[in-house]
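Final report, closing paragraph on structural work. Over the funding period we assembled a curated collection of sequence-structure pairs, and we close with a single example.
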Amino acid sequence: MPRPILATVHTAALRHNLDRARRSAVDARVWAVVKANAYGHGIERVFEGLRGADGFALLDLAEAERVRALGWRGPVLLLEGVFDARDLELCSRLDLWHSVHCDEQIDMLAAHKTLKPQRVFLKMNSGMNRLGFSPERFGSAWTRLNALPQVDEISLMTHFSDADGPRGIEHQLEVFERATRDLPGERSIANSAATLRHAPRTRGDWVRPGIVLYGSAPDFPEHDAAHWQLQPTMSLSTRLISVQTLKAGDTIGYGSRFAADGPLTIGIAAVGYADGYPRHCDTGTPVLVNGVRTRMVGRVSMDMITVDLTPVPDAAFGAEVTLWGRSALTGAVLPIDEVAQAAGTVGYELMCAVAPRVPFAPADE
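Its predicted structure, as stored:
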């Protein structure tokens, strides 16, 4: 029998979260961002739940090929554009739209031989200071692109650095609007946080929700997923493979970091950092056992964690353990953001870090 750890993708939750993003961006079209293998969920597993989007946005050409192989004939956007001139051949063949954020990408387009002009999204660096043309150079970049026979329509985009926090978006939005005031083309400026927190101000023509599609709050802990009416799209579960009874003073695991202050029953769950469960989790990290909320105690090992069974005294060998997501037994939800917070990271990382050795169940409803 295989080890009992299992990841499950919830199709109905994907549809729900996509609809939630759409309701915040009325009249705008929606990119479903499926970069990083759909945030660790698997592009093929999320496709059915997200095919109601107006387009798919991603980074990797191989992932773009997978989306096309699934039968998607609508827009596909490469968020970082091309990395090599040869990539433009595939863009032509697969009819991919792509970001242009530097002079080198314009040079590649100028040298590209194609019978069909390409749709591009010209990116401005409005303050994020990663990719994009400065506001001062944005107009000249647009003029240069617009003169190329290899380029069809030019859309305009930027990315917010602080849409999820108190600084907000106004400092970047003002820069973007001023620099693009006289330029034609559709606009795409809203990521997940901007879509939920700053609509309709940031709606534009296209919104680019990512993490909200997967049931994680973009501004946790200020707001949780329930506040935004989001549903978990991935559940990671396992089972107890042992139960131990401790007496006062007994310690648990490597480094003896946790000592029982009285009689304590603990369960050993088959999950560890080799499965992608974060090693930085420690005593107090929330866990569900048979749908009942309890806590991890001691350190995370490569293949095991230990959990306090005080709230679930009847739990025995084989009991369900939910690391994040929804308990199949009771329907109780453990938000991934809470587990990530205990590990000093964000839900994005946990989703993307599920290890290859963890099997995925067939996507459910």
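The first helix runs from residue 11 to 24. The radius of gyration is 23 Å. We thank the funder for supporting this effort.
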